[in-house]
Amino acid sequence: MMKFRFRRQGTDPQREKIKQELFAFNKTVEHGFPHQPSSLAFDPKLQIMAIGTKSGAIKVYGAPGVEITGLHKDTTAVTQIHFLPGQGRLLSLLDDNTIHLWELVAGMPREVVAGKSFRGQSTCTHPHTFLLLASATRVTVLLLLRSCDVVSIGTEGGGVYFLQLPRLSLKEDQTLFQDQITQSLPDDYRCGKSLGPVESLQEHPQESGKILIGYSRGLVVLWNLHTRHTEQIFLGKQQLESLVWERSGNLFVSSHNDGGYSVWPVTTGNTYSQQPASTTIPYGPFPCKAISKILWRTTHTGSPLMLYSGGMPRASYGDRHCLTIQQDKDHVTLDFTSRVIDFFTVHSTEQEKVFDDPTALVVLLEEELVVIDLQTPGWPSLPSPYLAPLHSSAITCSCHISHVPPKLWERLINAGKVQQGCQRGNKVSSIWPICGGKNLAPPPKHQELLLTGHEDGTVRFWDASGVALTPLYKLSTANVFHTDCDPSDDPHDPDLQQEDEWPPFRKVGCFDPYSDDPRLGIQKISLCKYSNKLVVAGTSGQVIVLGLNDEQSDHLVDVSVVDLLQDREGFTWKGHDRLEPRLKPAPFPPGFQPLVLVQCLPPASVTAVALHAEWNLISFGTSHGFGLFDYHRRNAVLARCTLHPNDSLAMEGPLSRVKSLKKSLRQSFRRIRKSRVSGKKRTITTPTSKVQMANAALAEQEEVAPVQRRIEPRSADDSLTGVVRCLCFADTFLRDGTHHGPTLWAGTNSGSVYAYALEVPGVGLGRVCDRVGASETSLCVEAVLGKEIQLMHRAPVVSISVLDGRGKPLPEPYEASQDLAIAPDMTNAHSVLIASEEQLKVFSLPKVSAKTKFKLTAHEGCRVRKVALVIFSSTAQEDYSEHTLVCLTNMGDMHLYNIPGLRPQVRYDCIRKEDISGIASCVFTRNGEGFYLISPSEYERFSLSAKVITEPLFSIQLDRPLDLTPASSLSSPLLDTPLDSPLSCADLTLDTTGELTEGICTRSSRHSRPVLIFPNFTSGLCICPAALWMKQRTT
């Protein structure tokens, strides 16, 4: 009989088909700002921008929704990027001295030629052309000629090489060595010194084939490619940083390491130019830092526009990251909080135009992208529809809201517009300048919000409905408290800046990594989308209830203090102090405004929060216990201490530095000693008989299934056992099986679950109203402990959810009462699903008897980190969906189980197990998607649903015929390397099972990826799906 006990059940073909229609794992898009950017490029014809990173990624952006990501095979920094204008191709130079050519094709961008290296003689066809050391041939600069068929390469050794495109073959007859230039120099300039590396290459704006070559020593040469001789030599004596042509070609400007720039006229008949027409050190006369890059743009007003980075006085402002804009008497020094990587202007590039007339300045910083409107007086910054720095202050928590009501969405957008208008003075009228491509993705059926809490006490609202994560509104909680920095003092306010300050600094950008007070950090967020109530909880025990208001308000915030220790003796708080609330009315802008502040004592970080707006109740938990508060009547209902007598660490707080090493060592030795003693106790048996010993061994084997791991119970003496991990409100059966009512559930780190029956005035009489009568106002909410559950192994409780009589999760507040969701089944018995770190278990209510369980740690050897109940819709049947339990483990994999049976459905590898911050930051949506941080500034978006996928779909009009390669011919010579995806997905092959019709993107019923459509390849229309990863191929 025992041999059939653990037999696996056979797979049901019908069920497997349903699984394929419900579940599919895809990583779809990356939101946020690229981590560690290293290079920048812009295509003025296609109006698309590319950003290279230190990890070898290239990200291309156009209009909102137009995003492409490519990844080099080697994780090497991308030092330079250059577009081939209008062709959908770009060159990339890596830090390992290799040059790569990428091109955008319908369905999959690919690398045309990769791995051309400049490492001395190792890869040269003719050794006599590269008789230089490897270090001397390091590439310093690339210049793509206007004809787009030749790229010139400057090196550290001073040589200039030329490659033929698109094959990147060396044009040996065009190579220019430094010796050829040195021979034509005057003897007094030569002086036996090297000219240094090639710092800049610039082609003549009017005459193709003429190149300015700038050497580090200061020499600038105008070289003619056709005649192979120097037309003019400019004998500069200051170390060179960069060069730029004036549009007519009659002059050029050079910037230098002394913080100055020089204007050089270009004349005919004069071989040597000893001195520039003018030399200016704008922030002199004291020593200044180098001007690393300078741009000179002509305008129809007559005065040129100059833009340059650096040049600050070393002694006073040498640590500033600045970029200066000058035109006639207008002078602004943009002051950034992170280093300037590169910048460009959006201006007219047509040959028939006389002036540049720049419209926008795009600055790539180390931590954000800033766009300046050059058409509006004052040069204000433009709001970014994407690439917003998520980490402007460090992200501490996140929350996702699905199916946002239109009214709430509109009010949030209006509050955000008022906020942006105040910051920018309502002066911005220009549109986003990077607008290449056309977004073909259908508009979202529902609006979605992503809320992020930050270290500086702000909550940011993001539009997560599509590919572009757009900022909507920012809420600050700092003005509720007294802090070192008055939030009313806006550093971006021009009235606060001194008029006679020099340099004329102006703070630009929103990246601010410094927090005025770490106690302001947001730890938990809960939003009721129907009542517009928001709860945010912070690091110092503050819990703030906010309501949405369309008008500015000056009011005093009510403060209530809840002592979670309940005068328990023997505990002394050694952590940080609480934040001091403002005792006078304060101004609050339109948007979410604070109604009441609940301060937990001791002021430990809030670890869990729950909101039930229909009952006007909030619950909150810390490492000391949990509380219940009625924010309508402004009174505390419950305070329960969960501390164990040995919870000494709970009294020190996350910001405390007084943790005792002696205590830590003592606890470690106690655990070791206890494990040894328990081990000895298990091995000691009374030698009564060999038969008894054999029976005991057999019984021990039967207790644990062969596929399970033995789980040791956790000691109650472990520190931080009183931490409240989760809280839950539910209308269910707790006292008996005939009467249901409001309940509160709390789970702790020691495996304890507390269930309280609540008496809420008005709930039994019908729907709760926000405005109650005088008789009901005198009534108070009451809480009575109904059940207390202790899990066997004392594993931390991660999640608690109550299921109705059909085994479905209970609807959110207001959903059932306002007929926004199917009413829960109150006729059959309810159950509660408790997820601990080690197992999932369903208990019947009200008796709290175990119905079913799944031992995740025993079966899989992993621990639960995140849990969510998700609705998965079928791709085959519109009216079919399933409620599924999704678990993220400490190994980074996703496990899906049906409810209430807890039978495993599918498993996916999602996050690397080494990525602890990514696992900790993961948040799920109700419809099967999720987000997690892949860097401090980027969210990776993924989908577990076969139907709900948010991915890019767009078209780009190119100036070249597309090379359309069908999926069946991927092994052709032009595509002789496998797909190289940064996500390492195995399902990135083209799907040819769908219907090919002009201008339509359909989906196959068997695959989650969209079918590629090529409506008109002769005109160069490129339609790109979500998995638009760059494809590499070599020659």
Give an account of the 3D structure:
There is one protein chain. A hairpin with a 3-residue loop joins β3 and β4. The N terminus and C terminus are likely disordered. The protein has a domain of 120 residues. With 1035 residues, the protein is mainly beta. The strands form 16 sheets. A 5-stranded mixed β-sheet has the order 6-7-8-9-64, with no helix packed on it. Strands 14-15-16-17-21 form a 5-stranded mixed β-sheet, with no helix packed on it. A 5-stranded mixed β-sheet has the order 23-24-25-26-35, with no helix packed on it. The relative contact order is 0.10. The chain is 9% helix and 37% strand.
Task: Give a quick precis of the structure.
Belongs to the WD repeat L(2)GL family. By secondary structure, the protein is mostly beta strands.
Brief descriptors of the model:
single chain; 1035 residues; mainly beta; five-stranded mixed β-sheet; disordered C terminus; Lgl_C_dom; LLGL scribble cell polarity complex component 1; repeat; phosphoprotein; membrane
- Give the neighbour order of strands across the main sheet: 6-7-8-9-64
Overall average pLDDT: 82
Number of helices: 10
The end-to-end span amounts to: 65 Å
Rg of Cα set: 33 Å
Q: Give the structural class.
A: mainly beta
**Considering DSSP H and I runs of 4 or more, what fraction of the residues is helical?**
under 10%
Biggest sheet architecture: 5 strands, mixed
What best-fitting shape do the alpha-carbon axes yield? elongated
Beta-strand portion reads 35-45%
Q: Would you identify the regions where 5 or more consecutive residues have pLDDT less than 50? A: 1-7, 113-136, 487-492, 494-498, 678-688, 698-706, 765-775, 964-1035
Task: Count all strands and give the number.
Answer: 64
